Task: structure prediction
Amino acid sequence: MNFLKISTAFILVAWVGSAAAQTNFSFVAAGDMRNYLHAKKTGERQFDGCCAAIKSAGAGEFMIVPGDADPMASVRAVIDENLGTNYLWYPVVGNHEIETSGDVKWAQAWAAQVPGLVRRGPPGAERTTYSFDFGNSHFIALNEYYDGKSDAVIKADVCEAALTWLEQDLAATKKPLIWIFGHKPIKSLPDMDSGRIRHGEDSLTTNPAHLERFRHLCEQYHVRAYLCGHTHDCSVEKVQGIWQADSGHARGAGDSGAPSTFLKFNVAGENASVDIYRADANGVNYTLKKTVALTP
Result:
């Protein structure tokens, strides 16, 4: 079932009812499942297995997808099959989405009708950069493929226009917990289990001044964590004083270089932690590998 065809009114009622004043809730992050949705071999699973494991672990209130959910309509269909058509997700575009105009248009159409968005993005990225509130938390999705005019450029950056919008958005929220998510990491780190490192030189920007301003804003406004993907390698560590949670890949057996992963974030008042779930080599069985307390 196509998510964009679901009644917006129906989802809005469900969203408002669950979001009201919650200070104890959970949400999940999974990404980089691109083109690995259903296993083609007996005894293996891909993103479908990850969704089944998320359901078994308690799916939380919604899913954040830090990019490379290409093709977006097909990824959403797998979520529909396993987690239900009214299960909310909040995707942000990655480098592979911006290579396909259909994915960018799909993301724009999604943002035009999804409930609960607090603020649209800056001119040129109104529907691929956005923020929303849930319970005692404020969430910000950054399109790192925005150059101040177009929201589908090749080179990743958090440009001046995006940083100005981000600062305004951070200043406007009164929520005690703030989460930012985008596709690329602040710094690429090795996978916590396999030690593999991909895109070792990649970052959300190669501009030192932009990176410093982003880091400063995260510190100034006490951002609890930055959620990312791109590397396919999972890690949850502080980078330059900021908690960085890289969700790795959710391809199941589709990437043998590191275990398939999803992250489950738990909010309890102003305390937060993340459970790291990792799959076996076949992408079938996911187990809780580690819990990290996201201390301020």
Observations:
- Residues 5-17 have pLDDT under 50 and may be disordered.
